[in-house]
């Protein structure tokens, strides 16, 4: 697919340099039960030059990096490294760091992240357990995001619907970006209906946006027809100004090269207006992440 004016802002990708930082899930021990399955093919450096080369065919112009250096005891080290990469090479435009919001020192850690110009917020993975979203220590740390006008990248699925909605209502001024279409884990009709009900409930909170990404982690034999219903439903529920496309590169790269995936997204929304497509591929990510 070609368009002279098409530009892509990738709302969700990863970089890693195995010599620069500690990525335990890549070098020490496998992530047990990872939805991507065997990810040994990506246990090598994926640096910004690789991202730029992969994104060149679809005019990648900006990007948002999501934390992945799980072996670092100090997550600010990843932010510092990414900022040095961005200063040199222009990407990533936004940095979402690992957030240790339950720690007593989380406010001080956020302030250290804020020393780097491209820092925009944090993600805290839900393998800590779904109850974390209502934990008193977590809520105290989350208030630190509110005070600093930072983004929370939400890793949650429909099992967490009530807690996600309660969190968004408690902190209506915090921008929350729900990752990977609410991370649907199964591909049955019954699950789709349950997922849609949960997503409609989540969308009632106007401070939550939805990232259209990560579907290939579960759908390894994917096709345009298999991922389109999830994407179309998210857009119907949240609207184009609260939806943004991401590649989850290089994880989704296990099952499709970068341009193939982006062009699949483009085909799915080909009948949308030019303005709607610009929102999905560029404007929403720029607005929500302020990049």
TrEMBL record:
Q: Describe the location of the Amidohydrolase-related domain by residue ranges.
A: 9-291
Q: Does the keyword Hydrolase apply?
A: yes
What GO terms are given for molecular function?
hydrolase activity
Which keywords has UniProt assigned to this entry?
Hydrolase
Organism superkingdom: Bacteria
Q: Which InterPro entries match?
A: Amidohydro-rel, Metal_Hydrolase, Metallo-dep_Lactonases
Q: Tell me which family the UniProt entry assigns to this protein.
A: Belongs to the metallo-dependent hydrolases superfamily.
Q: What is this protein called?
A: Amidohydrolase family protein
Q: Could you tell me which species this protein originates from?
A: Paraburkholderia acidisoli
Taxon lineage: Bacteria, Pseudomonadati, Pseudomonadota, Betaproteobacteria, Burkholderiales
């Amino acid at each position: 697919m070609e368009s002279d004016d098409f530009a892509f802002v990738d709302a969700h990708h990863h970089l890693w340099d195995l010599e620069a930082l500690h990525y335990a899930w890549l070098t020490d021990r496998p992530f047990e039960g990872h939805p991507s399955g065997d990810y040994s093919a990506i246990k090598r450096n994926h640096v910004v030059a690789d991202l730029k080369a992969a994104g060149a065919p679809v005019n990648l112009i900006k990007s948002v990096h999501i934390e992945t250096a799980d072996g670092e005891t100090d997550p600010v080290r990843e932010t510092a490294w990414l900022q040095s990469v961005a200063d040199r090479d222009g990407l990533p435009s936004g940095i979402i760091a690992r957030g240790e919001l339950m720690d007593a020192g989380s406010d001080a850690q956020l302030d250290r992240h804020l020393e780097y110009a491209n820092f925009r917020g944090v993600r805290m993975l839900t393998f800590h357990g779904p109850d974390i979203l209502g934990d008193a220590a977590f809520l105290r740390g989350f208030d630190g995001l509110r005070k600093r006008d930072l983004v929370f990248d939400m890793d949650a699925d429909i099992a967490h619907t009530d807690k996600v909605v309660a969190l968004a209502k408690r902190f209506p001024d915090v921008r929350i970006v729900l990752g990977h279409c609410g991370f649907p884990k199964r591909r049955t009709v019954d699950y789709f209906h349950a997922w849609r009900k949960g997503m409609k409930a989540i969308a009632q909170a106007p401070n939550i946006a939805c990232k259209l990404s990560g579907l290939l982690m579960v759908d390894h034999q994917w096709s345009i027809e298999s991922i389109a219903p999830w994407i179309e439903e998210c857009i119907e529920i949240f609207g184009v100004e609260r939806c943004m496309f991401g590649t989850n590169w290089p994880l989704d790269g296990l099952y499709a090269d970068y341009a193939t995936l982006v062009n699949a997204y483009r085909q799915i929304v080909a009948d949308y207006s030019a303005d709607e497509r610009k929102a999905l591929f560029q404007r929403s990510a720029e607005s929500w992440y302020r990049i």
